Amino acid sequence: MIRVQNVTKTFGDFAALHGIDLEIKPGEFVALLGPSGSGKTTLLRIIAGLEFQDGGEVLFDGEDVSSRSVGERQVGFVFQQYALFKHMTVAENVAFGLSVRRKGRPAKADIRARAEELLRLVQLEGLGKRYPGQLSGGQRQRVALARALAIEPRLLLLDEPFGALDAKVRKDLRRWLRDLHESMGLTSIFVTHDQEEALELADRVVVMDHGRIEQVGTPEQVYMEPASPFVSNFVGETNQLPGGVHARPHDIELVGEGGTPVLVDNVFRRGGSWRVEGRIEGHDKVVEFDVDASQPAPKLGETVQIRPRRVREFSS
Amino acid sequence: MRRSTTESRALQVMLIGIALVFLAFFLLLPLIAVFGEALKAGIGPFLDAVSAPDALSAIKLTLLIAAISVPLNLVFGVVASWAITKFQFPGKSILISLIDLPFSVSPVVSGLMFVLLFGANGWFGPWLAEHDLKIIFAVPGIVLATVFITFPFVARELIPLMMEQGKDEEEAAISLGASGWQTFRHVTLPNIRWGLLYGVLLCNARAMGEFGAVSVVSGHIRGETNTMPLHVEILYNEYDFVGAFAVASLLAGLALVTLVAKTVLEWRFNLHGSASH
To answer: Which residues in chain A are closer than 8 Å to B174, comparing Cβ atoms?
Structure first.
């Protein structure tokens, strides 16, 4: 169990974190989601021990580790740019954590065997003699992961783990990482600014903004019941209708009459539905909504009537 | 096809020509003159001049000075660059300017500074005299002046390099349980080795060649506190041209070796740098 209690952090005049409280249970896969400057990476680095909080505590299994260094906390950290050791081979990179161990260092042959085992785990068998410069982005990412796992971390921390990869590789790696997390019984926290990634991967999502936690919940909760206008806007698409009402594009339907009149500006195909962009008459508000592709597409310049099926209201 | 930066052919030839003529006059010709003068009377007098007791003692002293000041500045340069690039602390920009100070101060002033501190009438002069310690007009003074003069070379080479490399790899190493020393030894040092070697080379060339600051603190005692550059001057003032140029040619030879080593390093450095991306 990882507990973060009332953690604050400032850099000069900039308050990066204002009193963060968070609990992570063993085996959980948690996403810290937020825009840049929200404090998510700072929080991750504080949990790791790469940064130290100004106030509050970080507890690992009830023990205050606030004054422990990153090396003593036994956490696996995967850096955004991987931070592989350029002059070492892949196998040496993976073995690093074991070969620098001062107490109870395994024998050379055992270290080598363990590195090979880890490379097999991340599906890079046979690449141990290469240098990081000779690998693709996705392969480097997996080396970084194997290296972090070599020290048998009690907690795996990943900073924007897919940020530097192209879309296809990213998608494959995501699923693979999720499986690895399950099969190894890890407790993992990752930082991302990509809401889709957070919703797809995590058991729980921590939405952050301006150094505060806006909402903690399952992907379902965060998406369906956003706790604040910020979460509603940041997680998934949202229309802000008059009167502080938020509605998702797929929660808006066309009605024959009695709805809100909308002037259609643009219509295009998106998967199995039409995406319609328009303006509410009398307001300058832009609305986006989906119409099932089995229905005829609204025409440009036409005025249609809409009604939200499901809304969230926020007092402004 | 015209490129945006295309100059006329004639202008190109002219610019290259000017550069070559300049090089020939100010670098190549003097170099030839040095070796020419040194060997003017044949190889015999050259060897005699180089192996004269005073010359030998100057060579030994120069090597000794370099052997002390280069390692000192190597350690200092690495420590300073490490501190500046991997940590945040108040007064960092002042430290960076201080490191550059020896480059912006005239070497003669640097020498005088040590005379003012440690000379007979200097701040610590009476105390030193009381304890029978000699710094000015002795080897310790020459070492101090040389260390001061050559102290920016290593740090100036490493700071931009380490700045560019950031501290991700070091953080990765400590997160994997490495100690500070292990991190330095296995991660930082391999990453900076070529830059470090390059800085050491430049530092060494300057340590052996420094004239101004050393001249002020040395006292020019033949066979005792004369370094090679000082010895060249003495011989020249005594109209012993063959001797002067013979010793000078050794220094020039050192410069050539440094130049070749520097070129090789730059080549390896770039090769290494581009291979890692």
So the answer is: 69-71
Q: Please, are residues A70 and B175 in contact by the beta-carbon 8 Å criterion?
A: yes
Domain ranges of chain A: 2-229, 239-313
CATH hierarchy code of domain A239-313: 2.40.50.140
User: Rounded to an integer, what distance in angstroms lies between the CA atom of residue B257 and that of residue B250?
Assistant: 11
Answer whether B243's CB lies under 8 Å from B235's CB.
yes
Residue A32 scores a pLDDT above 50: yes
C-beta separation of B228 from B63 below 8 A: no
Predicted TM-score (pTM) above 0.90: no
CATH architecture group of domain A2-229: 3-Layer(aba) Sandwich (3.40)
The residue with tokens 């949990």 is A47
Q: Inter-chain contact A97–B177, Cβ cutoff 8 Å?
A: yes
Burial class, A229, CB count within 10 angstroms (exposed 0-12 / middle 13-18 / buried 19+): middle
To probe the interface with A, which of B175, B268, B272 has the most A CB atoms within 10 Å?
A: B175
Asked whether the domain spanning A239-313 has the same topology as the one spanning A2-229, the reply is: no
**Interface touch A70/B186, C-beta < 8 Å:** no
Our CA dihedral for A221, A223, A229, A235, rounded to 10 degrees, sits at 130
Q: Determine contact: A147 vs chain B, CB below 8 A.
A: yes
C-alpha to C-alpha distance for B277 and A165, rounded to whole angstroms: 15
Whole-number CA gyration radius for chain B? 23
Contact state of A100 with B182 under an 8 Å Cβ cutoff: yes
**pLDDT band (50, 70, 90) for residue B275:** very low
Of the candidates A79, A96, A148, which has its C-beta nearest B168's C-beta? A79
Measured in residues, chain A has a length of: 316
Query: What is the residue-averaged pLDDT of chain B?
Result: 87
**Inter-chain contact A86–B276, Cβ cutoff 8 Å?**
yes
- Confidence band of B190 (pLDDT split at 50, 70, 90): very high
Residues 216-255 of A with CB under 8 A from B: none
Structure confidence at residue A182 as a pLDDT band (50, 70, 90): very high
CB A94 within 8 A of CB A115: yes
Q: What are phi and psi of A246, to 5 degrees?
A: -110, 135
- State phi, psi for A269 to the nearest 5 degrees: -85, 135
B25-70 pLDDT tens trace = 988 898 898 889 888 888 888 888 888 888 899 999 999 999 999 9
Nearest chain A alpha carbon to B275: A133
Q: What is the ipTM of this complex?
A: 0.85
Chain position carrying tokens 């141990």: A128
Of residues B169, B175, B187, nearest to A48 (C-beta): B175
Whether residues B178 and A100 touch (CB distance < 8 A) is answered with yes
- Quick check: A50 and B277 CB within 8 A? no
Tokens of B188: 């930082």
Beta strands in chain A (DSSP E): 2-11, 14-24, 29-33, 55-60, 63-64, 75-78, 155-159, 188-192, 204-209, 212-217, 239-241, 245-247, 252-255, 260-270, 273-280, 286-292, 303-308, 312-313
For residues A198 and A205, what is the distance between their CA atoms, to the nearest angstrom?
A: 7
How far off is chain B from A248, nearest CA to CA, in Å?
40
